[in-house]
Amino acid sequence: MYLCYLDESGTPEPGGTSHFVLLGMALPATSWKRRDAEVSALKTKHRLSREEVHTAWMLRRYPEQERIADFTALDDAARRAAVRTERKADLAKASLRGPSAVKNRLRDYKKTEAYVHLTFGERLALVRDLADAIGTWNDVVIFADSGMKSAHHGAPKRLFSFAFEQVVTRFHHYLTAVGGGVVGLMVQDNNPTAADHLTTLMRDFHDSGTKWASIDRIVETPLFVDSRLTAMVQLADLCSFAVRRFFENGETDLFDRIYGRFDRTGSKLVGLRHYTGKTPCQCKVCVDHGR
Questions:
Q1: Can you list the domains of the chain with their CATH numbers?
Q2: What is the 3-state secondary structure (H, E, C) of the chain?
Q3: pLDDT value, residue 229
Q4: pLDDT per residue over 252-286, tens digit each?
Q5: Considering the chain, what is the average pLDDT of its residues?
Q6: Burial class (CB in 10 A: 0-12, 13-18, 19+), 31
Q7: Low pLDDT (below 70) residues in the chain
């Protein structure tokens, strides 16, 4: 059996990001324990231990850190204490702008609390090491669909469904190529907004197939888990972030580290698609995909 961990980057709704990415990272169930142990070892090495790796929040700059004199000379406990002091002062200033400003600050602080003892460079080093690990895992295969939102004319539900159908189909074709009665199970970060929609779509795929395949290699509907406790979903998050940043900003640092793990048929890239509708694109993904 293969486990395919799903995560997304960007939002399917108009505004914010220009692209929406849905990605699945699959590995044999027999490899899970070894890979999970490797992730744990890397997190421990970088002083994050059992905390969740949420790439987008880790790779933000924390201005309060940069205001602290000799921050890098402090130990982890002193760094945390100094950041808490700065954040308390920032919340006091935010209160002068009203409740919504305080609410937004508190949300950001909650999302980044686990990482405040690490400098930006230290956080980046961990993310790079994780991406490098994924790039060397020959038993891992990645499938993703990156949709340019303007090509879907502001229809977020259609965009999400379209991406999910692509990932499911590519995972099914991969399992078929592996052969030997191998089946797969999809695992998704627990997203109450998407859960009912994904479950309904997968039921439909089991009943009627996708546009491109009868789905007989994937069992059940997606299982929903807490990403804070599931390292492989955190890695799928890293990969989906890297894909979106590549298409939106041309960032290659993380993307190039994982690019070799996307599914291929011979030399042709089939596991990653950049959907731009009628807008021509000559990025390396579109070229490798044969557009």
A1: 2-43+131-289 (3.30.420.10), 63-115 (no CATH)
A2: CEEEEEEEECCCCCCCCCEEEEEEEEEEHHHHHHHHHHHHHHHHHCCCCCCCCCHHHHCCCCHHHHCCCCHHHCCHHHHHHHHHHHHHHHHHHHHCCCHHHHHHHHHHHHHHHHHCCCCHHHHHHHHHHHHHHHHHCCCCEEEEEEEEHHHHCCCHHHHHHHHHHHHHHHHHHHHHHHCCCCCEEEEEECCHHHHHHHHHHHHHHHHHCCCCCCCCCECCCCEEECHHHCHHHHHHHHHHHHHHHHHHHCCCHHHHHHHHHECEECCEECCEEEECCCCCCCCHHHHHHCC
A3: 84
A4: 999 999 999 999 999 899 999 999 988 999 999 99
A5: 94
A6: middle
A7: 154
The amino acid sitting at 49 is S
Q: Which tokens go with 152?
A: 């879907």
Instruction: Encode pLDDT of 18-37 as tens digits.
Output: 999 999 999 999 999 999 99
**Tokens (6 digits) for 55:** 């790439």
